[in-house]
Amino acid sequence: MRIPAHSVCTAIRDDIVAGVHERGGRLTEEVLARRYGVSRVPVREALRTLEAEGFVVTRRHAGACVAEPTEQEAADLLEMRALLEPLGASRAAQRRTEAHLKVLRGLVRLGQERARQGNSDDLRSLSGWFHETLAQASGSPALTSTLTQLRYKIAWMYATEGPADPVEYWAEHGAIVDAVARGDGERARSVTALHTERASAGHRLRFGSGAGRVERVRNAQHPVNMPSLRP
């Protein structure tokens, strides 16, 4: 059975984010095809997609390589997220469905419970799910796609420290949902802007001199049908 290219793309992207494929490293079709257990055709398609997303570059005499973003490019990502996350929340206040609200409220309840228990691993995953759902509630596929790519790239370029006060952190999530539920776009925008600003303070560059180097996590090989990382 032919493995779809988007599954291969997800697997390669996840490995780039995790640091398995190092910045500047070559990505040869033959090696990738063996690693993920597929033919070279979906690998070739996946590399084209990843190049369009900015994770891969094509170099003369070297072929496809993992991109090497600059510190300025990394900083731009946080600035873009600070502008787009509040926009998404404002639109969600006008366009969300009851299904979106149900998921968001459930995530807030679970996040608050985990925060009180001090389970940081669960909190990181739940936060990613929360912001993904909030973006989907905006009713804008283009905005949702852009925010998803931003989260992937930020997870690739930055190590993230947990919030100093997880309970307060999840109270902010709850305030966002309350504003969205009331249809208060301006309140949703302002609360999300503050939340995003505070969250950005816990990011440390994984490369360069701006915030020191952080060791990459080298994950073991995984099959292409594993769930995608939520940055």
Automatic annotation (TrEMBL):
<keyword id="KW-0238">DNA-binding</keyword>
<dbReference type="InterPro" id="IPR000524">
    <property type="entry name" value="Tscrpt_reg_HTH_GntR"/>
</dbReference>
<dbReference type="InterPro" id="IPR008920">
    <property type="entry name" value="TF_FadR/GntR_C"/>
</dbReference>
<dbReference type="GO" id="GO:0003700">
    <property type="term" value="F:DNA-binding transcription factor activity"/>
</dbReference>
<feature type="domain" description="HTH gntR-type">
    <location>
        <begin position="2"/>
        <end position="69"/>
    </location>
</feature>
<keyword id="KW-0804">Transcription</keyword>
<protein>
    <submittedName>
        <fullName>Transcriptional regulator</fullName>
    </submittedName>
</protein>
<keyword id="KW-0805">Transcription regulation</keyword>
<dbReference type="InterPro" id="IPR011711">
    <property type="entry name" value="GntR_C"/>
</dbReference>
<dbReference type="GO" id="GO:0003677">
    <property type="term" value="F:DNA binding"/>
</dbReference>
<dbReference type="InterPro" id="IPR036388">
    <property type="entry name" value="WH-like_DNA-bd_sf"/>
</dbReference>
<dbReference type="Pfam" id="PF00392">
    <property type="entry name" value="GntR"/>
</dbReference>
<dbReference type="Pfam" id="PF07729">
    <property type="entry name" value="FCD"/>
</dbReference>
<dbReference type="InterPro" id="IPR036390">
    <property type="entry name" value="WH_DNA-bd_sf"/>
</dbReference>
